[in-house]
Amino acid sequence: MQIRTIGIDLAKSVFQIHGVDERGQTVLKKQIKRAQLAEFFVNLPACLIGMEACGSAHHWGRKLQAMGHDVRLMAPQFVKPYVKTNKNDAADAEAICEAVARPNMRFVPIKTVEQQSVLSMHRVRQSFVAARTAQANQIRGLLSEFGIVVPQGISKIAQCVPDLIEDATLDLPGQFRTLIDGLLEHLKELDRQVTELEGKIKAWHRQCALSSKLEKIPGIGPVTASALVASIGDARNFKDGRQVAAWLGLVPRQHSTGGKQALLGMSKRGDSYLRTLLIHGARSVIARARLCLDTDTWLGKLIERRNPNIAAVALANKNARIVWALLANDREFRPDYAVA
Predict the structure, then answer these.
(1) Residue range 116-135: average pLDDT?
(2) How far is Cα 120 from Cα 176, in angstroms, rounded to an integer?
(3) Number of helices and strands in the chain (H, E)
(4) pLDDT band at 131 (very low <50, low <70, confident <90, very high)
(5) DSSP strand E in the chain: where?
(6) Which uninterrupted H or E stretch holds 315?
(7) Which one of 31, 178, 235, 247 has the minimum C-beta count within 10 Å?
(8) How far apart are CA 86 and CA 102, in angstroms?
(9) CATH number of 5-100
(10) 158 backbone dihedrals φ, ψ, rounded to 5°
(11) Per DSSP, what are the bridge partners of residue 51?
(12) How far is CA 61 from CA 3, 40, 73, 226, in A?
């Protein structure tokens, strides 16, 4: 009996495989070690393969696609309802096999090696930024224990703290001064690493035509543009701009019943990193728009009647839809564009 659909439960060393034929009957249940997986599928006729979008999923998706298989990735929360019994590898593989064959299932596009490389730089930069903020807060907190308050802003630490630890009039032990000096050096190193990664991201951004196109949108800079292009990939995988906004968690949550529509706050689903970049970019546009408020524009009217936070999310939502329109239809951004 020919295998038509296979579900793979990915793991670190041992993978569980569940296969069915054209009638949905189980014809394969097997555990395979990592080293044997490629050899097993290269000798198998082309079939539909489903996997959860988790660690190494994009790597195996590319390898299996190169062998001629139709590979589809799914978000784990969409697979969970198909697990019939207690959680184990065999039950997970069976659930994946059943979920991938559903006609209304939503799939995750398989990323290229270049996309994963760019996103890796973004993730490492994000971790360095978080570590830099934590280090700055630690220095600020330690100094406050000795009655020294540093002005707000991470740049103020590099400006003020070296002079403070050199000030002989302050009652600070020599051991503590040495400690703060070491923490300042660590903070400078983190800042250097963040700057270095931002330079690499901007260099890739300048070489990518799609990313350079998105930079023209107000509120989207090189970092946001490169992250969007690497994450979205082929924008035609999305039906429209609203799907992109929903994918980023920028649309309202819904709790409707009995014909009564109830919309709540934004859903916050999807990639929080992309959503944060878009909202921070929108805040900068709103801050500049407040200096010369034009009540005839869409943004001017929005700022007048709504809270700044709501306006920032609305503008981020709009920018996400514009991003889809530019990428899916291969267009250039026009500030004076008007809907027909």
Answers:
(1) 94
(2) 37
(3) 13, 7
(4) very high
(5) 5-9, 14-20, 26-33, 48-52, 70-74, 252-254, 263-266
(6) helix 308-329
(7) 178
(8) 22
(9) 3.30.420.40
(10) -65, -30
(11) 8, 73
(12) 18, 15, 8, 23
Bridge partners (DSSP) of residue 19 are 6, 28
**Digit-coded pLDDT (tens) for 46-97:** 899 999 998 889 999 999 999 999 999 999 999 999 998 888 889 999 999 9
Contact present, 56 and 34 (Cβ < 8 Å): no
Domain limits, the chain: 5-100, 113-207, 212-254+266-329
Tokens of 296: 């005839």
Strand order in the sheet with 14-20: 26-33, 14-20, 5-9, 48-52, 70-74
Average pLDDT of the residues in 210-221: 91
Residues facing 168 on adjacent strands: none
SS3 assignment for 35-59: HHHHHHHHCCCCCEEEEECCCCHHH
Locate 155 and state its tokens.
């740049």
Secondary structure in 3-state letters for 137-204: HHHHHHHHCCCCCCCCCHHHHHHHHHHHHHCCCCCCCHHHHHHHHHHHHHHHHHHHHHHHHHHHHHHH
pLDDT score for 317: 93
Q: What is the rounded CA–CA span in Å between residue 154 and residue 140?
A: 10
Q: From CA 164, how far away is CA 170, in angstroms rounded?
A: 8
> Residue 20 and residue 308: Cα distance in Å, rounded?
53
Checking phi first, is residue 259 left (phi over 0); if not, alpha (psi -120 to 50) or beta? left
Residue 180 · residue 143 · CB < 8 Å? yes
